[in-house]
């Protein structure tokens, strides 16, 4: 079994390639040729949590496990196995692996659902996940302007400089008039208002990826109700983790809520579309397999 470092992943997995891998992964899910295991968590009184998730894709299967603590951050590891023999193939340091595949999944969803002339991107949040979201959206659309807002002025200013964006004073200023909106925050409560979303002639696409807990959400109930299409990486996972939908609340039989794997084109007209990303273990498997094949 080989050891694969963060730096090796960075060197061998570009955002462009990873978006292609996510496209293939969701096509495999649609065809029944890939599978995903819902995330499991063990909560401790200390505030620490142990998380695990897995999946199978092509010649590989694997599992990611990671620890998290509100004060001490998160630490990610991934193990890749041969699906025919069960032989362990590689152990990954997986912080960056998770970051880039999360961005790439949003990139794939954006390519499907955002207007082809979308050019203004709004980002709420200025952490490391927000950065990969910007990179992913730029990989699939010709973005002319990026506006960013987050609670801490110093962080949003630094993010703006690093990403060629414009830091703005309020979340509303960031969102109004944007073609694509990304929410990438740890917030428990909605970070945007439904009235700020203006569909216009192009529609608006929203990537909500900051929460994968049932009691946290970034989007308000009225926006969920107003959306024309809500794509989720997995309805099965969303029923457990997608606070944005659980707290709305939604009817899971609502035809507007669709697995991303089943979507082939955006709705007609100027729709409001949402991609609710929770993160799937099968995404990690597919991305890790690609890196492993570059190194073996």
Annotation keywords:
globular, 8-stranded parallel sheet, 296 residues, 35% helix
Give the strand tally: 14
Shape: globular
In terms of per-residue confidence, which ranges show pLDDT below 50 for 5 or more consecutive residues? none
CATH architecture grouping of the largest domain = 3-Layer(aba) Sandwich
Give a quick account of the main beta sheet: strands, pairing sense, barrel closure: 8 strands, parallel
What fold name goes in the CATH topology slot of the largest domain? Answer: Rossmann fold
Indicate the percent of residues in helices: 25-40%
Fourth CATH level, the homologous superfamily of the largest domain: NAD(P)-binding Rossmann-like Domain
Number of domains: 2
Strand order within the widest beta sheet: 9-8-7-10-11-14-12-13
Quaternary organisation: single chain
